[in-house]
Fold this protein.
Amino acid sequence: MIEGEVLRRDARDVGRYDLECDVLVVGFGCAGACAAIEAARAGAKVLVVERSGGAGGTSINSGGFLYLGGGTALQKALGYEDSAENMFRYMMAACGPAPDEALIAPYCEGSVEHFDWIVAQGVPYRASYFPGNHEPFTTDDGLTYSGSEHVHPFNQIATPAPRGHAPQSIRDKGALLMNKLIASALGAGVKTAYQSRCDALVLERDGRVVGAVLSTLEGERTVRAKKGVVLTAGGFIYNEAMLARYAPALARCGSKVGTETDDGLGIRLGLAAGGEAIRMDAGDISMAIFPPNRLRSGIFVNRSGQRFLNEDVYFGRAGELVLLHQDGQAYLVVDDACFERPSMFPIELAGVGETIAELEAEVGLPKGMLEATVAYYNEHAARGEDPLFHKLPTWLTPLAKPPFAAIDLRADQPFFTAFTLGGLRIDANGRVLGASGESIPGLYAAGRTTSGVAKQGYSSGMSLGDGSFFGRRAGRHAAAQAGREAQ
Amino acid sequence: MIEGEVLRRDARDVGRYDLECDVLVVGFGCAGACAAIEAARAGAKVLVVERSGGAGGTSINSGGFLYLGGGTALQKALGYEDSAENMFRYMMAACGPAPDEALIAPYCEGSVEHFDWIVAQGVPYRASYFPGNHEPFTTDDGLTYSGSEHVHPFNQIATPAPRGHAPQSIRDKGALLMNKLIASALGAGVKTAYQSRCDALVLERDGRVVGAVLSTLEGERTVRAKKGVVLTAGGFIYNEAMLARYAPALARCGSKVGTETDDGLGIRLGLAAGGEAIRMDAGDISMAIFPPNRLRSGIFVNRSGQRFLNEDVYFGRAGELVLLHQDGQAYLVVDDACFERPSMFPIELAGVGETIAELEAEVGLPKGMLEATVAYYNEHAARGEDPLFHKLPTWLTPLAKPPFAAIDLRADQPFFTAFTLGGLRIDANGRVLGASGESIPGLYAAGRTTSGVAKQGYSSGMSLGDGSFFGRRAGRHAAAQAGREAQ
């Protein structure tokens, strides 16, 4: 953030424009690429401006997952039943509180077509299912559970179906996805300008967005955008001041997911043009201690030595509950039978003991509480039951083999990863909405510059998912405008 | 909210102004009254406009508490030691996460002088201490604990001192406070216009706020405000759409604290003028099942039958934790010795039993958990200890006298009361700040139109406290401006 930055400019103060296009896309990540492709295919002259030196944004370093369902070609090929309605039920239960029906409903309805479109851009998917919980980090399988669809309480609300669609690559899945989308955009005739930061939007007197002011290596350049501007410039996890003002809990997490350009500039540009930013406290908070999945046979306990969650949930749900409900401190208690070092991040042990009592004392938990918790858990696990949180029987084994250990699940550990989910409010066509519900003429947004389908309760693939989905819609809607000549 | 409302107007589109003043105050609650008094005393021509038919706002129906300390005259008269630094330590610990040092520091430093000023407006305080936890609802005592200063963990962080300053009246304390402030404002020469809603702010081309457009019984009226506009128009607890977009958890609460004009219009006016609204998810969430305080000898348990909090905390802290950390459902388990019906609201019993096992089954808690919880609690309570949450010994009595009961602490019950704490970002002079940290020339705000000293972790009296405190500062700062003539 630049103190005193001026994020909007009056069109009357802009003389001759240096550049002209129909649709200006700000940011060349996944949402921007999809907006650009669709706008260009609809006949618009498209310019994509990107602050950094190359295309890809945060998306290119991501896991490449798209959260899609409703009966996609890949789901069908692998024999998984799903429907738009079933997917809607899961998302309305998981993406709360106050899930955004206005975005979730079209997202579920359009999901099958959207997957076909992604495939048509050249992104390959292998028709194979990854049976581990959540993410095929070490295989090129195409489909997996990337949320908590198959575990309690969501398996009581909607029929479980895997919806994590992963490009066919053992590593760098995000790069594979993005390289195909970038190639598709360039192939559609999209023009690009790198090292070009959008510093202000240009507004006509009636509030219509008609262009932008860029900061480039050659100095300031003005762009006329006759049909519209699409903001796809990422979130704000790398802006400390904005985190403190809007989402202070996220600042506690050990790792940030994003690039340094996730500094909220896109959101601030939208605000300055009259847009509204909503649910700015929300974030994806993942506790990436899985894989290995065998750790799920351990139990999460809080500072009081109490369990608080079924351990088979998506690690994003676990991270969210530890950070937001347990004040950022919990432990994973394991025995020698289920312990294995997590594969993605280093961990610290808060304590080790030959008995639970010894472990409890070493961690500093209230006397007798962990013993009571483990006794209750073991008694029921021996019968394949979990009356407290209904963990799947697969992971229900009494903790009985010493030594016992407690993995320190403190929010500032590196495996606590966070990115922001709050941002500009959009409608289903990607139009940015103002505080009174009106759309800002000429202004669109998608991806993490917006508040999307996951207001909270993230599942992997929802961010690339809604960024690509509403990015396409924004690009098409902008391209269909009559366009306005300079006044 | 009016779909499509236009909240700002270009000064060039305003011909002749119908009215003129130096400082325009929008809303005649506690913050507005204090802004008006100070602006008028500094020599400014002040107009206060109020949507409803009379003065007082939500403040007039409130408990009338001001959260003040640092060694006020009343604290000293009653022998309580406090200092600005000690008060600052409590507020920085309680009003988190990410407490707002920029507002809390001057608030603590100016607190002694502010109390004297309130007294000078004619508000009477009786030099007597109310020893019950929290609020002298049935006495006219002047000072009490209105937060969690004296209980765990805050009694470990700062020296406990009571800071709830209550006007001397058995009932209608808020009316007493407001009637004195209103009289003081009118005595200072402040002009008023009722049934006059501010629908838009008037901005010069450079972004300066120079007036407002009012909707009155006689139709639209424009006001020129040469030195500034102060927005003191309340929060948004009565705006369902805004709650859904910003603070959906608050919408779950059974009661709203406010008036129907707490619909966020002041916040939206500020946003439209380029202001930034922050921490919009925050709220005061009180679980008003106390008094009677003897209920604090019961134990709070969650849906798993586990304790999660010391029961002697301020009921705002308890409500916040039940709503935000326990998904809006908990129980207060009592025995026949400590049960008594709450005095302020009706309650429902989720179950009754001759034994804890019977109660557990009737409430539907996981088998054996409540029994284990009560056994652990009783064992330590018999020794005057609470190793889990450190409740004060006063309330530590084993739950032993049947029958036992569980009071249903569900968020939609009427004793769950909520109001919003998010709003416009201001500096210590009440100037509204934009997204880039700059102040909006000519625009001020205070009270629940702003994000104030309590970003979360509310204690009683912080809202009237910061509204009156920063309201005064806003009024003084605005009055000190050179003023701008119409261009």
Q: What stands out?
A: The mean pLDDT of chain B is 95. Chain B is about 25% helix and 20% strand. Chain B touches chain A through 52 residues (CB under 8 Å). The longest helix of chain B spans residues 462-479.
